[in-house]
Amino acid sequence: MNKTWDWKTDIVINSEPKNESNPRTGTFPPSLVRGHMFHGPANSSDVFIYGGTTYMGNQSFQGYSRPDASTYPLWSYTYDSPDYPWMQYDISQPWRPNHGAAAEAIDQGLGFYLNGQIDAGTSTKTLRLNDTNVYTPLDGMLVINLVDHTSQNISTPNLTGDRPRVSGSMEYIAPVGGMGILVAIGGQIADKSPLASSSGGQLLDFSTVDVFDIDSYVQNPSSNGTWYPQKTTGEIPDPRIDFCLVSISTTDNSSHHIYLYGGINPTQNNTMYDDVYVLSLPSFAWTNIFRDGESPRWGHNCHVAGNRQMLTVGGNITNLQCDWEAKGVAFLDMSDITWGSVFLTNTSTYQVPQKVLPAVGGTRDGGATVKEPKEGWTNAELKKVFDTPRRQPGSTPAPSSTNEPEKKSMNAGAIAGGVVGGVIVLAVLAGGSFVLWRRRRAKANAPSELPDDQVSKPPEELGDEKKTFELQGVNQEPVELPGADPAELGAAREIVEAPRETATKAAELPGTNTVPGGKHGVPIVRTPDDELPSPPISSIDSPPPATSPPPDAQKT
């Protein structure tokens, strides 16, 4: 990405195998779909793959491999190493989810994975589901520390729909709030049941989005952080899933813009979309900037490339046809709204599209004048988040502005105490200086002694604190999962619905920042299988004995 190129003529595929195994265990990474790829911390040369499920649509294929255990849901890949090693990590989570919404704070070394599902391809323990269209939704949001490879599962109260969602998407907006925000958009929610079908449930519309204040979690991880629903206005897109998102801000950070491209509606005759919408913040107004294209696309992924281009890769262009070579890569100039095959390194900085200007005000270069939603804030506390200035990771947040009278009284006492303390310190310093002067005169010819080294002890860490959270549908390690037999189904539901305490690990926040001249990128990688909803399979096959992970596999 450091030079201009045309994907139609300049792409050279290097066929040299690089899919090497873990050098410590000899284990090869699993072949999965509907996982997510993380960029990793800004100062790291590793990329990360999290989650995913084994494709179960063609089990007679000679390359088919049965699902493995869920012990190692996180893998890293060192792309600048001569041997291209993979590493695997146990992050103390019971399942390897897929089809969730993910985003990443590269400057903080954190990855976020919202809800998602487990299904027949998740692990050896879920093979009894035996149906590629049946899944169990997962509650909560996983916060993954990509520096020390730990994780914490936090609950997600107040999310729109009040149920776990799959196949939606999420974006990280770094300049908003003390430590940035996450904006969760769309998805499919199932009926209230431990089992769900991809052909059932309902799609979340885009008239409401959910905003997560990362700072609320960073300051108090045990609180799970705070989600805020926010109503949107403007040209609201039709409900859909398996779309892709990218976000970009003006240079003065007066407005932020989330681009939504493509998608599919499986509940309405598999309607597919070839359009682009922009959700502008803080106005939370939708604008349609490209509609009714000739190549619908879903299951693809998008990235910000260069100064102002959106790079889209892969996806499906029909119900069962994978977009393989015909139009596998395309670029959208997010300022001029033009599609092309050429990646440009000489473009100017991002400018707000002319069509989007009414939603934000100001000029194309910034200076937005619309500072709040047209119909007001759904929750007044969200306005405070947008008014909070951004701070660097690891810095102390500004004091709260609440309880002003008490604050003034405390400040007055602090000032008085500071004055008295200052006088005492000055007196001590003066006396000490006099004694030191007398001592030096008495020992004029003696060598000066250096003071003893004093090492301050670090404050006690709070690493022992742990909190448990519920995962919907993954309670207890299930021995059997429901199949066609009604008796087994009922028993399995009792198992699934029983409460479970999930062991978690606290994630420390690294002090990494984006490299100079870099941009916060949020790669969204989701590769769905090509199967569309179909009637459940009635037979149940017994799975083979579960295989244990290598005893010497790396574990954090």
TrEMBL record:
Q: Which domain of life is it from?
A: Eukaryota
- What is the official name of this protein in its record? Cell wall anchored protein
Membrane-spanning ranges: 414-437
Sorted UniProt keywords: Kelch repeat, Membrane, Repeat, Transmembrane, Transmembrane helix
**UniProt cross-references to Gene3D superfamilies, sorted A to Z:** Kelch-type beta propeller, Single helix bin
What SUPFAM superfamilies does the database record attribute to this sequence? Galactose oxidase, central domain
Amino acid composition bias (Pro residues), ranges on this chain: 542-556
UniProt-annotated stretches for the region Disordered: 363-409, 469-556
Indicate, by first and last residue, each region the UniProt record lists as having compositional bias (Polar residues): 393-403
Q: Where is the composition biased (Basic and acidic residues)?
A: 371-390, 494-503
InterPro entries assigned to the protein according to its UniProt record, in alphabetical order: Gal_Oxase/kelch_b-propeller (IPR011043), Kelch-typ_b-propeller (IPR015915)
Q: What taxonomic lineage is listed for the species of origin?
A: Eukaryota, Fungi, Dikarya, Ascomycota, Pezizomycotina
